[in-house]
Queue: 3 jobs
Job 1
Amino acid sequence: MQNSLKIPKHVAFIMDGNGRWAQEKGLNRTTGHRQGAKRVKEIIGGAGELGVQVVTFFAFSTENWSRPKSEVSFLMRYLDNFLAQEARFLEKNNVRFRVIGRSDPIPGYLQRRVKKVEDKTRNNTGLKVILALNYGGRQEIVDAAKKFSRQVLESKGNPEDLSVEGFSRYLYAADIPDPDLLIRTSNEMRLSNFLLWQLSYSEIYFCHKYWPDFGVEDLKEAIKEYQKRKRRFGGLDVS
């Protein structure tokens, strides 16, 4: 791939449009979610081959609980089955899997499945795959503030010493670098409460395709666009 030295280390995805993809084809929304899951596996394989080090998928937000109970129940069961079926794929491809977000009220059976897959892949050294499940960006920041506050109350910290870098250590995945590139499908142009802290200086790429139609070639196009951009991080372009 052209300019391979500028491959983003971390690519985050807002996988939008599963339901609309299905509805426009006269199918059930659950069919769209099934097709979307297939794309996740494809993108994991493609990202690893391209040299991406971390991918984060926004799978289920803290706001998604307001969807119909039947759809939420399907999503939880389907994710459980997907992880059970693809655990071997992750191990075989040296992928480390982890989840960020609040565990409650995720069903117990899914929490156990997540832990099992995380434990099995913990020592893998290849692509890191992060699933944002029952995740909200504002909630993450609040939870980080609570962690720091508890340390202060235990006399293990001083509020005056807190820095931007120091605060980052209290986030869900503090060891993971911020995304270089955010990709959102279905041509919706908003962050939807996703990685609000981490996306501060990320490049953003909006794709008109629904997630079930987004493939590795589309990922390559997004990366090509990323390679054309100059990241200033608030400074001046001196090149």
Job 2
Amino acid sequence: MTDASVRTTCCIAGGGPAGIMLGFLLARAGVPVVVLEKHKDFFRDFRGDTIHPSTMQVMHELGLLDQFLKVPHDEVRRLRGVVGDTEIQIADFTHLPTVCKFIALMPQWDFLDFLAAQGKRYPGFDLRMETDATDLIIEGPQGKERVVGLRAQGPDGSIDIRADLVVGADGRHSTVRERAGFQVENIGAPMDVLWMRLSRRDSDPEQTGGYMNYGRIFVTLNRGDYWQCAFVIRKGGYDEVHARGLEGMRQEIVRLAPFFADRVAELKDWDDVKLLTVAVDRLRQWWRPGLICIGDAAHAMSPIGGVGVNVAVQDAIAAANVLAAPLREGWLSTEHLAQVQRRRTFPMKVIQGVQVAVQRNIIDKVLSSDRPISPPWMVKMFNWVPFLQRIPARLVGIGVRPEHVRTAPHAPTTRS
């Protein structure tokens, strides 16, 4: 039984980077928007928290960069890896043509709180926490059906939200895309990831990086007083790792990165280890009349390169650029929705293609053998020719065809 009904111009399911950024930009452009987030806050541990130079460039374009950089964060200017016993300098961000020449490691909940606070300055921004999209409202005769809203469950009961456009930004397990009947192309990933934290010492390496050897990959992100760590395992291999026991995993970590020997005991039980099931997929078509998906709901990314947050932000910017005016002025068409997909398909496919190539040619091979490895000469080239470090830095830090904010502020701010 429906307890309430709401009418708005745009309803966004999902309060992640894509949903909150799009909601903020649309409200800023004068479009009334309702954003639904099923949790009571944004706090979830081990979510993507790498904010890349492309995203900070957007903050600069919006006049928010100085304020944004006051949010606590760590700055990563170079990435390194240890392949076998050889340290490889992989990426150098200090030469990028951006205002910020580094990756900011910032908890995703802080990033989302910042964006939500900016959205709330505009009267058209309606963020509803603890409100979960459960179904689509579809009307019209067969063959001419149109999504005209969605049903949600909130803290005070069920809600019908009618909107000119529904946006699915509810992640890789999207309810919206499932209810819409979209076809998903599963590209596959040979790995899963176990996330954990280990404390950091002053004597530890400075740089964020990774370790590859003995059939294992271990990634370390420098978070100041602790390391956020990713222990990469074969797809579906969690039961095998669990069967070997926590002590077995501790020993494998120390074998890869010996400086952790004095603190792997901080992993006291399996509650300290979180499993991320990796998926790489994409929708063949992101839209149908009255509905479009963006971010992970349209294309789930691998954690390789930590690009997920930033690709989602780029989707949101492109969507706002195309959709704001027709939404505000009441002439939205399916061609506008198709235009968003056309704009974002090429960059998305390039990034996913690189991720899949890395998965197949590096990660899968490393995980398939427990023998010691040494870096091939092509990898050693990054040390021999430092200029090459700018290539992965450009791909990761800026991406392909970066988006820029084209929408101007339309509605005056009324709330501080």
Job 3
Amino acid sequence: MNPRSDRQRFAFVTITTLFFAWGFITVTVDPLIASLKAIFALSYAEVMLTQFAFFLAYGVVSLPAAALVRRLGYARAIAVALVVMIAGCLIVPVATHFETFAIVLPALFIIAGGITVLQVAANPLAAALGPAERAHYRLTLSQAFNSLGTAIAPYAMASVVLGGGIFTAAEGASVTAAQRAVSLRHIDLAFLGIAVLIALLAAFIFAVRERLATASPPGTSAEDSSVAGALRSRWALLGAAGIFLYVGAEVSIGSTLTNFLHQGDVFGVPLGRAGKLVSLYWSGAMVGRFAGSALLTRVRAATLLTVAAAVAALLCLTVMLTPGALAGAAALSIGLMNSIMFPVIFTLTLERSTASRAATSGLLVMAIVGGAFLPRLVGVLADFAGLRAAYAVPMLAYACISAFAIAASRVTPVARPAAAGLAH
């Protein structure tokens, strides 16, 4: 038995729980959007401020998070991130107590800020905890658990925040104050439950902090990880645009899917049932990651990304042009196409960027802020022309990603050691 290998194996299992946790928490916002829209009588543009607040944290917190990881080390930075996430969860009951939607927004920003620190710390740590030749395998496994969290979360969250209260009222009936209060309490219950689960995870991380610290590799230097270097690389910028568009498209669809499937000309099911069906969208991403890993051993990454993004664009067009259940099925199927996009965009960019791997990675993580801006645009378009027309935004995003992949297939990678991608 190799003591160091045992420590690294234990540390990897510990870190993988974090992938599951941030995947679960990120996607809880999807059914929450449908709940907040109904409770506060918000427009799509207004309720999409939830995703704006959540994903804005990636743009604001990424650089401070990298500095925090360098200063505290992986284990302590992860513990701080979990405590920050608990604080954000505990602010949500304040918002519901005062029945003020605006207070929900800083709560979500704080939660996402903690998740950003987790991303910055856990992604490179998962890749480094073991032999270098198995780094891709470890990240693929961690990504599968991240996707498991995103698959479970919509069903679990919808069961709580889209059940009872105002959601028991008949269509078009006036909502009573008592029903509204029940729905607000359900949101409290959901976030207090999440806070308890994070607290248990934080206690576990604290208990094993020494074992985690001894297994962790040394961090990168500030100079190596400066995003400024990536801003001078054409391919780093193109890859960042790809990540921006992908995350924005994926989040836009997931955010509106509950209300879309609820529509009478789609599935026509109650909001609670529609919210649970969103799990199929995220389950497609989970299944696709396993299938995509196998396909990537036989198909060029750029080719697979070209096809996946093009099919996603066609599915968006199908949603826009076809009536009934076919549109709903097409929208849910986009999740399968999304599955390989983030890691493939990431690795294609790392292979072609002339900046350091750390600098390029930092810029790509910041580009996740696309999840703040595209959903807001989708919300404005949905208010103006309806949810079907709003699929034009992700359709154009996927078309641009397909063009990125075609361009990448024509460029020779920069000669450097193989790199692993991050998970989203």
